[in-house]
Amino acid sequence: MEVEACAVCMQPANQRCSGCHVIYYCSRDHQKSDWKLHRGKCVPFKVCENALLGRHLVATRDIKEGVVVLKELPLVAGPPQITPPVCLGCYRTLDLFGSRECVTCGWPLCSDKCGESQAHKPECHITSTRRGAKVSVKTFHQPHPTYQCLLVLRCLYQRDSNPDVWKKLQNLESHCEERRKTPRYEEDRVAVAQFVRRFFNLQDFSEEQILRVCGIVQSFTSSGGLIIRTAEPILKGQHLSICYSDALWGTANRRHHLSETKFFWCTCERCADPTELGTFFSAIRCKNR
Ligand SMILES: [Zn+2]
Ligand SMILES: [Zn+2]
Ligand SMILES: [Zn+2]
Ligand SMILES: [Zn+2]
Ligand SMILES: [Zn+2]
To answer: Of 103, 95, 78, whose CA–CA distance to 137 is shortest?
Structure first.
């Protein structure tokens, strides 16, 4: 058997962390001294990768049901790509009379207070320093094209203001190779990548770089925090999964949706079973019986 090294002193170690079963220590003292650092990383799963699933989580020990396995805040949050004008501090829907322009950048807001919020800082900063002119939004209550780039803009802002977040964003799945063949990719190139570079004078980001970010924010919705709790017991080595589609869709619809948006052909127990676990969910009912 391979001898593990202590996470603190790198000496041979045989005491495994009972939380994650991933990290080893030579002694109780070294485990104790490392806990402050390790605590944030001590999770019951590890990230694995294969051709079918791409990156996914695999349990590193048995997990009981009802356990919180993951709790995370979003790296970046913003309005959806297709949206009527909303306040960029609190995301309330705006109309002409209920909104005011941000004094610094011109984006409409519900109040001056929202103009000073942390959430609004990225586009406020980029608009005033790079574009050099205010944004003007005059139509409300219908999807507004300028908002298409907002979440992407908030991601790009991280490169200079928060390199740690930028690095983490870059590590997320963008599906760029698969997306390259889709009409959506070309739409994003024109409506987001080319638009951002021209409108906000951000030529120091390449079209490709911006399109990568487009892919990343489409793969992951970013509303509020994320808490994942186990719905049933999971055995060590099993992969942790969540439902990307709707449990009340038939197999054909679920598989189609997953292959269009997540670029994989689902082979889970239900998808692989023509009877859908004996429910005959997608079956046609014969009228004469
Ligand atoms: Zn040690
Ligand atoms: Zn641990
Ligand atoms: Zn607001
Ligand atoms: Zn502003
Ligand atoms: Zn499935």
So the answer is: 95
Average pLDDT over residues 100-112: 95
- Alpha carbon of 262 to ligand 5 centroid (Å): 12
Q: What is the pLDDT of residue 180?
A: 87
Which ligand is located closest to the Cα atom of residue 273?
5
- Distance, in Å, from the CA atom of 176 to the CA atom of 209, rounded to the nearest integer, reads 10
Tell me the mean pLDDT in the region 147-168: 94
Least distant ligand from the CA of 114: 3
For residue range 224-279, list pLDDT tens digits in order: 667 888 888 999 999 888 888 888 999 999 999 999 888 888 888 899 999 999 99
What does the domain layout of the chain look like in residue ranges? 1-42, 100-219, 245-289
Ligand nearest to the CA of 120: 4
- Whether residue 137 is predicted with pLDDT greater than 50 in this model: the reply is yes
Computed over every residue of the chain, the mean pLDDT equals 89
The alpha carbon of 243 and the centre of ligand 5 are apart by a number of angstroms equal to: 9
pLDDT of residue 202: 94
Taking the centre of ligand 2 as the mean of its atom positions, its distance from the CA of residue 48, in whole angstroms, is: 17
**Closest ligand to the CA of 52:** 5
